[in-house]
Design brief:
The protein contains 4 helices and 10 strands, in the order αββββαβββαββαβ. By secondary structure, it is α+β, with helices and mostly antiparallel strands. A hairpin with a 7-residue loop joins strand 1 and strand 2. Keywords: Cell outer membrane, Ion transport, Lipoprotein, Membrane, Palmitate, Polysaccharide transport, Porin, Signal, Sugar transport, Transmembrane, Transmembrane beta strand, Transport.
Length: 212
């Protein structure tokens, strides 16, 4: 109970401080962040997309001098020995291989390219974010057939102050941001497996604090 009181007091104090700063200063409002939708619309259509921080291994058959391993830069591009600034983020390895074949066709005759990926960071649009009263709020790399239970295991469950049954899942569908209720307490505390749901790349889970 003492921990709960201290936790609540800290939250109230932080909110009061923010409101005080706003009242004392004329602050322009920033535009709302743009949420980029995932290309995955259902669990069966998932294909891994390359993202910044991934290691991209490019093998050009018969041309080892233009083959190699490259780290995707924060701007989503790589630079090879022949071509600078090849955009790779948001593409599947197969799509990238075909793109590189087209580019290398300017320098080589009928190039055959194979692309493999390591690191598996992926673009932000494909990551699942868990915020609020999770034990370890994280951005998680999506894996095919991942469920809410898998996500909760990854973030270490909820804090003792979490209101898991009032949690919300935010998902973009057909360009529209939608919210769905989650019953996380029922799932991980009561073992109600019917509360488990499929996750999709780009999902955001918001876990509020309970006030009781």
């Amino acid at each position: 109970m003492e921990k709960r009181i201290i936790h609540t007091i800290k939250n109230i104090a932080a909110l009061f401080f923010v409101n005080l700063l706003v009242a004392c200063n004329s602050i322009d409002q920033l535009p709302q962040a743009t949420l980029h939708p995932s290309k995955t619309t259902d669990i069966d259509s998932y294909r891994y997309l390359i993202g910044a921080g991934d290691s991209v291994n490019i093998f050009v058959y018969g041309n080892p001098e233009v083959s190699g391993s490259f780290i995707v830069r924060p701007d989503g591009m790589i630079t090879t020995s022949l071509v600078e600034d090849i955009p790779v983020s948001g593409r599947t390895p197969t799509e990238l291989a075909r793109d590189i074949e087209e580019v290398l066709g300017t320098y080589l005759r009928d190039p055959i390219v194979t692309v493999t990926v390591g690191g598996f960071v992926g673009p932000f649009s494909e990551q699942i974010r868990v915020i609020g009263e999770a034990a370890q709020p994280l951005a998680i790399n999506y894996k095919k057939n991942m469920t809410l239970l898998d996500v909760m295991i990854t973030v270490g469950g909820l804090t003792e102050f979490a209101d898991g049954n009032d949690a919300v899942l935010v998902r973009i569908e057909n360009g529209v941001q939608k919210q769905y209720p989650l019953a996380i307490d029922d799932l991980i505390k009561s073992g109600d497996i019917s509360a488990n749901v499929d996750m999709l790349p780009g999902d955001i889970i918001i876990v509020p604090e309970t006030w009781f």
